[in-house]
Amino acid sequence: MAFFGALNNSENLGTWEFQHDTVSGSRWNPTITPYSPGGYDDIRVYVGDANLPHTNMIINSGFPVSASGDKTAKIWTTKLSDIESISIGNAYFNKYIINHVDFSEFTRCTSFNTGASVNNRIDQVTFPSHSLVTTLVSCFFNGRVTAMKPVDLSTLGNLGGNVKFEQCIKLSEVILPTTNPLAEINDFDFQVCTILSSSFDLSGLNFGDSRIYLQSCNIPSFIPPTGSNISTELDYINLSGNDISGTLDLSPLGNKFEGSFYTYTNSNLNQITNPTSPGAFTFYHAYSCDLTGNLDVSGLTGLGGDFRAYLNSNLTSITNPTSSQVFTKYYVRDCDLGYVDFKNITGSSIDIQIEDNNMTATEVNHILVDLDNLTWTSGSITIDGTNATPDATSGGYNGNAATASLVGKSWTVTTS
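Above: the chain's sequence. Below: its structure in token form.
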């Protein structure tokens, strides 16, 4: 007997319903996998205008739909609780999911996918309560709904794999589990959930080779996972375009902090507490915030690549690390910086933008002399604007001679 039983009629099977908006002539190809390998010949599917049994839900080419409009679809199986994964909705086939998607009866399901379409109108998603390790929880590109109820992921005791709620633009609250002892999260993606007001505390959750996407969400605070809960590396964190205020404490990440970090355009962010980490960086962007006083990145001994902390008018100093990782960009214009010590970092064809910092001639001279004494091959420095003009004597440094020497080494030097 096949896994779902040799039943001849859908009335004897467990029923699951959801609503969809489908274009006439389109096709729907759901993917449903049983918990244990078995037959698919006793699944019944009703798309709203036809009762279409199918022998293999994995390789089907899509169920036809004859009329446009909102419909109630049904899936029948012998036992809803024995479904391991379910994927509904497909923008390619013009199939858009609407209203409440209730997965609560799928108590052995570990992969949930509502499909990706800006035309989805999902106003609520309910997940089952279980402790199985999930591999996919996905409800993204949900564009036409007028409001979306809070998403409660705390019922999934081992949330793992990919967690994707990208561009759910009416989602205002997410409830996370506090732990996931048997699981590891890979992609954690809530980007462009533009009215999301939840504080994200990831401190008790396990992550693997991971990325965190939380840009343009309006979140007020963020607590990262602890380094001991990250099995390999957390090489991408994007917190840009939010409402994070005060101090962003990244120290719990420890030596797992590396790769690409973005926290630009958080207008109330005053401080960033960085951990001590040797990991190599490609991007570190903390511009257009309200960083105040000193930005200390001295513990990031693999810092390099593209570094940007410009447009922080209250930023008065930066403590650079000793790093052999090559910097290609160092943009810190439009702050209130004094002397910046570049001697312990590494640059090659570096582009330095440090204009409009109200620097004195002594500070400008000192920076130019330092750069001239380094062995970096070529580069560019813009140090004009509100900064003083270099001269031959201020502070005991000859800025004029350093400028001429740098130009002779194929540097581009722009001063006041």
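The first strand starts at residue 14 and ends at 22.
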